[in-house]
Amino acid sequence: MERREFIKNACVSCGVISLMSTFPLTLLQSCTSLPMLRTSSVDKNIVINKSKLAPEKNLFVLRNDDLQYDVLLVKNKDNTYYALYMQCTHQDNAVTANDKGLNCSLHGSTFDLEGKVTNGPAIRELKKYMVTENADSLTINII
Ligand code: FES
C-alpha cells in the first residue's frame, strides 16, 4: 500500500516525489514532458480513446488504479503502438520515463524505449504489452 501511494505522487518523468498526499498531481506533471492519462480497465484490458492522445506525441504514461505501476504507451513511426510496464525488473521499483528511455532511481538500471536493459543491475527487459487498435480506441491486454 505504501508503494502505491508513493507512485501516485511521483513525477512520471523526473521522479520528483511529493511528500504530501494532497499535493496536486497536476503540479507534479509540470516537471515532465510526457503526457499522463488516467485510465480504467475492463476485463483486464485498458481501453484508451484515441482522441485523448495528442497526435504530435509518441509517448504517454498511463495511470490505472488497478495496476501498481504505470504503463508507458509508445507510438511507433508507422503509427502502431506497444506498451511497457513501468516496474523495474531488478527489485520492482517504479521506473520513470523520458523521450530517451526509462530509468530506475533505486540502483541505476536503465532501459531503452523497447524495454531492453541498457544498464544493470537489471538483467531482464521490461514487461511489454501488445496494443490492439481499432478506429476509435486502443486496447492493452494487461494480463
Ligand atoms: S530496483 Fe531498479 S535497479 Fe534495482
Describe this structure in words.
By secondary structure, the protein is mainly beta. The chain has a single domain (33-141), classed as Rieske [2Fe-2S] iron-sulphur domain (Rieske Iron-sulfur Protein, 3-layer Sandwich), CATH 2.102.10.10. Helix content is 8%, strand content 34%. It has 2 helices and 12 strands. Strands 1-4-5-6-11-12-3-2 form an 8-stranded mixed β-sheet, with no helix packed on it. The protein binds FE2/S2 (inorganic) cluster (FES). Residues 88, 90-91, 93, 104, 106-109, 121-122 line the site of FE2/S2 (inorganic) cluster (FES).
What's the short story on this structure?
With 143 residues, this protein is mainly β. It has helices at 2-8, 25-29; strands spanning 36-39, 41-42, 45-49, 59-64, 71-75, 81-85, 96-98, 101-103, 110-111, 117-119, 128-133, 137-141.
List the helices and strands and how they pair.
Elements lengths: L1 H7 L16 H5 L6 E4 L1 E2 L2 E5 L9 E6 L6 E5 L5 E5 L10 E3 L2 E3 L6 E2 L5 E3 L8 E6 L3 E5 L2
Parallel strand pairs: 1-4
Antiparallel strand pairs: 2-3, 3-12, 4-5, 5-6, 6-11, 7-8, 8-9, 9-10, 11-12
